[in-house]
Prior knowledge:
Elements: E1 5-9, H1 16-24, E2 30-33, E3 36-37, E4 52-53, H2 56-64, E5 68-75, E6 78-83, H3 84-92, E7 96-100, H4 103-113, E8 117-123, H5 127-137, H6 142-156, E9 164-167, H7 171-187
Parallel strand pairs: 1-7, 1-8, 2-7, 3-4, 8-9
Antiparallel strand pairs: 3-6, 5-6
Helix pairs in contact: 1-7, 5-6
Amino acid sequence: xxxxxxxxxxxxxxxxxxxxxxxxxxxxxxxxxxxxxxxxxxxxxxxxxxxxxxxxxxxxxxxxxxxxxxxxxxxxxxxxxxxxxxxxxxxxxxxxxxxxxxxxxxxxxxxxxxxxxxxxxxxxxxxxxxxxxxxxxxxxxxxxxxxxxxxxxxxxxxxxxxxxxxxxxxxxxxxxxxxxxxxxxxxxx
Length: 189
């Protein structure tokens, strides 16, 4: 019988990756499910550590072979998804799985796993703060940032479909709130 599944989703730039790293370093019995994506690798990222970086063609082939729990074409030819093999690998070790998924992927996973999954939505304090964070990150063009901000507005409208919404105004508080919710879920029957 599989262990529990924790899903963390957020608009781009809301701080989910930072929060996830803090949670994973906190000693909670979780292992990160490495997602697959077809975007270009960013400075400091490593293949098979941050993501499985695939070409759009490779990603589409895995879709055809039903190798994903969920996947989404977030932007044109920019696919993100959760490989079924990752969940199996982690559960076979007896660990709980932490999945970072885009908002729609998170909703789909929660719908599939129901009470065996906890879905957490990380919300930025405001769209303006989100745009500021994306600009400071300096990884995207202005056009890309505008696209991400427009998508974030739509994604925030779906926050109510998650079990818990954590507002990331203060990082340490957001991390602590997320850890507490996860511990309560893992320790429940």
